[in-house]
Amino acid sequence: MLWFIVGLLALILGAELLVRGASRIAIAVGISPLVVGLTVVAFGTSSPELSVSVQSAWSGQVDIALGNVVGSNIFNVLFILGLSAMITPLLVDEQLVRREVPVMIGVSLLLWALAADGTISRLDGILLAGLLIGYTVVLIRASRRETAQRSAAAATNAEAAPQDAAASAGGHWALQIAFIAAGLALLVLGSNWLVEAAVGFARALGVSELVIGLTLIAAGTSLPEVATSITAALRGERDIAVGNVVGSNVFNILGVLGVSAMVSPAGLAVAPSMPVFDLPVMVAVALACLPVFFTGRVIGRWEGALFFAYYLAYTAYLILAAREHDALQAFGLITAGFALPLTFITLFVLAMRQWRAAPR
């Protein structure tokens, strides 16, 4: 337990230092705050997942590597967005609905398809990493176009002042580079300690490494996203709370799994339960974002409570399945046969009403 806590603290501190240094350098070289949020901040808060999954894949604990990513993506949407929306309704940027959420859904479906043959191979990893590079290039180019348009439209010094201030905020480059180096070092150390402790937990509790990866490690490595999104919601920066989650989920699949598959000696073997349960859940969670985000581009408190309740139900199912509890079958029938269909029908009706009421 001690090494798990120490490793977790090292991951959180390392991610904070990495995000601080990288975001200031990014702003200093002229990348817009929106793209910084979708790339540097989202990728930085996902660095614990990257460290843990790569270390697990390299050490041969592939169930932890894959379970960590799938569990983190489910946790990010259901738990983090759910809790943040319960604190205050979250505004959803139009660009997220038009581009970023469809990208998240697309890469989730791609991962499910790649896992169908039972292995995420090194070639699959190269494909995922290549898509991440392409996605980032598209975001940066779009940011430069938007920045150029704003600069051309700016007619007063008052509009240019925030850019000058942002550029000056990236000063002391040596200090920012030191933050990045220290953050990376803490991430490597923390991931080693966390993986070793998690394997010990799995053996002591008599559950699989996959379940530990989907729950305990996924929640632990997602703590930077928890802190970022909840803090943003409390400060009124509600679009950041949503953008951080979406960007992190895209990076988890393309970056974390891509690199993990490339460093694993034989790729990532996919557990039999993953393509028939956990990956469909991850895809369903991603798909649920579209109608929720589309209804007035606001995630209300009741929708947040719904997400949060589904995360509790998902975790309860995993625990019951791991223990082979007698209540497992009844629990699964109630959830799959009643709760899920009712939820999707409700969200679909709300989305259609919103679409019909929207001005043409």
Report on this structure.
This protein is an all-alpha fold and 360 residues long. The chain has 14 helices and four strands. The strands form two sheets. The chain has a two-stranded antiparallel ribbon with strand order 1-4. A two-stranded antiparallel sheet has the order 2-3. Helix 12 packs parallel to helix 14 (328-357). It is globular and about 65 Å long.
Going across the biggest sheet, name each strand in turn: 1-4
First-to-last CA distance? 58 Å
Please identify, by name, the CATH architecture. Up-down Bundle
Assembly classification: single chain
Strand content: under 5%
Helix fraction, binned, reads: over 70%
Q: What is the overall number of helices?
A: 14
Level-1 CATH class name: Mainly Alpha
How many discrete domains? Answer: 1
CATH topology, what is it called?
A middle domain of Talin 1
Shape: globular
Low-pLDDT stretches? 160-170
Number of strands: 4
Let me know the average pLDDT: 77
What is the H-and-E element order?
HHHHEHEHHHHHHEHEHH
Secondary-structure topology with pairs:
Layout lengths: L1 H27 L4 H13 L1 H13 L2 H26 L2 E2 L2 H21 L4 E2 L1 H32 L3 H13 L3 H33 L3 H13 L1 H12 L3 H26 L4 E2 L3 H22 L3 E2 L1 H23 L4 H30 L3
Antiparallel strand pairs: 1-4, 2-3
Helix pairs in contact: 1-2, 1-8, 2-6, 2-11, 3-4, 3-8, 3-11, 4-9, 4-10, 4-11, 4-12, 4-13, 5-11, 5-12, 6-11, 8-9, 10-11, 12-14, 13-14
